[in-house]
Design goal:
single chain; about 775 residues; alpha+beta; six-stranded antiparallel β-sheet
Amino acid sequence: MNAAGLERLRRLLELSSEWYWEQDAEFRFTRIEAGGAADRGGAGWSAAYIGKRSWELAWLEPLEGSWDEHRVVVQAHRPFRNLILKRSGDGGRTQYVSVSGQPRFDAEGGCLGYEGITRDVTERITAERALRESESRYRAMFEAMHEAVLVRDRDMRIVVCNASAERLFGVPREQFLGRTDTAAAQVWNEDGSPLRTEDRPVWKTWTTGKPQIDQVIGHARKDGVRMWMLVNAQPVYAEGDPEPVMVVASFADITARKEAERALKESEALNRAVVDSLHEGVFVRGPDETFIACNASAERILGLRADEILGRKTLEDSLRFLNDDGTPADASRRRVGIRSLGHGTSESGFVFGVIRRDGRRVWISANAEPVVFPGEDQVRGAVISFSDITEQREAEKRLRASQAANRMLAKSLQQSTDVIYSKDTNGVVTSWNAGCERLYGYSPGEALGRTLHELQMRNMSDEQWAAQLEKFRSGTSRQVESTRIAKDGREIAVSAVLSPLFDEDGKLVGEICNARDVTELRRAQHEIEQLNRELERRVIERTAELEAVNRELEAFAYSVSHDLRAPLRSISGFSDLLSERVESQLDPEAKDHLKRVRASAGRMSALIDDLLKLSRVARGEFRRQPVDLSELAEAILAAAAREAPERRFEARIAPDLKAHADLGLMRIMLENLLGNAWKFTGKRDRAQIEFGATRDESDTVFHVRDNGAGFDMAYVERLFKPFQRLHVEAEFAGTGIGLATVRRIVSRHGGRIWVESQPGAGTTFFFTV
């Protein structure tokens, strides 16, 4: 190599992390050049190599193989690639290099030596060794796993298995690898049904690409061993591949657990039979207060099925809980056994009542005991036992109710200013307070011992009195409004609440009545009814007046349509005839007069049409239905474009704008609004007409916007009044009826309409329907 070539090589080496070297025919180093980024190993590092062969350097040795093998290659003058050498340096530092070389020959083919490249591969070799060590460790862990593990490829072949798989399935590893099954004689689901191939965890993982977790299956080996397995399957993906490349499945032998569960179920069934034979009801509540068990007596006493009890924390939606006095119980009564759960203490003599769904009232005495496992302090639940003490409690309750009723009656009779009295089942008065004397005029001495038929129901026949006695004896509470007769013969309207009275044995003995005078209330109600009738009469009269006005409007409309059109047609027809026959003979001023007559006749005809439309809008049939306003707007603007094809305009109509409105009225309204936009943009080089909508807090607000002439908002109050125009006829034609029609249509729909405008900048009409 000439000097220039060497210089170029040197510059390239300065950019490289490799060493360039040369050897003579005896394989001694004659030259070593290190790249600028290469590790040179300290000052004078190359001198240690010059004149020596590779195998003569004590700090160099092949990582694999021997120097003898390398000498055979170079003595045969063959090139070599990627020979890995271990280089031991100062301070115990080890470096790995990859050496590649090729022989150099002279013109006659004689070997001149070798030249080559050396590259530092320490990081790669270190990483490879660490990887092999990691793989070795994980392989040892894999083999030591208690669970069986099988790895399948895309063809469902078993490509990897561990020692536990050999033991669990009873198949040697060499027979396992490459096969697609586990040599099972039979596989079944947890319920005993055969397990289909497509339901097996590995198959489901392949087809769904998702892990299958904790699937329990039964497995029978061909040697007759039957077992239960807990199976998990996990897909393995390669980078960029959407399909799994492998599935890793683990199998745990849970046979012992399943046997323990079976034994537990048998024990529970025995215990259940014993508990169900008890006359007492039994509940078991879990640590979270949930009912987790109950016996048949509990179902019988409470009138509930087990599935209506278990899994709940309360039975309040099925039962009404009562205190001793029959009032709704507070939370402490409804949560029996909670103290046992929270404090680990017993509860006894816990008495409460319940009203079952069938209406039966049951009294219960309950006890609760905490459940604590031996050797533990933690409360695992509570066992609640309860008895039906309804007969005893009902007798006590009837006695208390009778006593309370007597005390309440006596106190009420003495203190109350209300009308309160009691009677027996034959209607004989047994108590009579001062309020009764004030209302009916009888003193207690006059009333006691006499029947109500004699006192306040004197207007009843014997048959009516007998029917009244049947009501007295019904034993139910009721509220009545009726008319009674006072001692002086006055009729008194009363509203009364009657409640049954029972003795200590629960036998009906009469009723207590609490009444009030509603005579003035009845009189006021009568006056209100009279006022309502008067109001109804006035409404009928006003309706008749409105109908008469409508008939007059119809007559006026008929007159406008027929009587006014006839002379108008004559004016228009004769002026047209005159124009055809003598227009050429007229001077310019006469022609202008004739032209104005014809134009006025046309405006008058248009005005009559608009007035008729306005009349029909107010009187026509009104029927709401779904209306596609976008479709109507597109059709109206398309028709306008066909009539004036020379117009250049841009229409922006929002799609799917719908309203629940009258279709005919919506068409008239949009024809007027879009017609105005079309008319007032007529002087624009490029008109812009927009129909859209926005949503406010309560309604949809539609709008029609244009870039037309606009107007001064100071005159906005005139805009919706008939015959009021904000532009002169010569500038924009019209009758001044269109927007009045629009406002009336919006009003019929119960909506609103308003406008924003600026002269020369366009106008926007907003409306709701």
